[in-house]
Amino acid sequence: MVxxxxxxxxxxxxxxxxxxxxxxxxxxxxxxxxxxxDDNANPRMDTYFVDRDDCAPMVLDALIWIKNxxxxxxxxxxxCREGVCGSCAxxxxxxxxxxxxxxxxxxxxxVKIYPLPHMSVVKDLVPDMxxxxxxxxxxxxxxxxxxxxxxxxxxxxxxxxxxxxxxxECILCACCSTACPSxxxxxxxxxxxxxxxxxxxxxxxxxxxxxxxxxxxxxxxFRLYRCHTIMNCAKACPKNLNPAKAIxxxxxxxxxxxx
Length: 259
Prior knowledge:
The chain is of the alpha/beta class and 259 residues long. It has 8 helices and 8 strands. β7 and β8 (126-127) form a beta hairpin.
């Protein structure tokens, strides 16, 4: 029988249960993943109680409330609070999503929060995005042309502009990639749903003149073809985009240029 051994300090233990807010009438329990690389201890799950009458309705509001009023050591990323920047992506109630757009009323019972899965953790709810951003850079996400630069702008028809809908809206939150089993097992070589969605965005841009170069860059057994169309990416995307469809479109382009 196969025996699996967890890495040292990887087993999640029971953490601290913080005191309930005095006089609160509506309280929501939060179970939050905590890990500090400096104390050489196992990760733990701390329990907090949020006074809903003293807190705005979103999960991010609750995290800020906890940090400001209970535990200032709680660490997480956040910025815009409007579902635009992607900074507050985390696993909430078993689903990758944005804390700023997740309503507490949409969760039944205790709110359980973990960092994005299958990524190295910097601290608490902050994942290491270094590899993810490097993969985005690898698809060269900028306009590439060989024609003389126009005096004003590169023109594009309304029809060609509409072809970018469902692609440009990606906010690089990594919810899709960290929900993909293929990315979990091959994250060093498989570019993942987010980067490939962006690759399709530039392949479809009528102003770009580097289609052959871009397809050559993706022609690899791992970079593109590890996708098995599980569709976790489309389900997890907080912007309702469909990375699996974009990957299928890139594969179609690969076939067409060989015919």
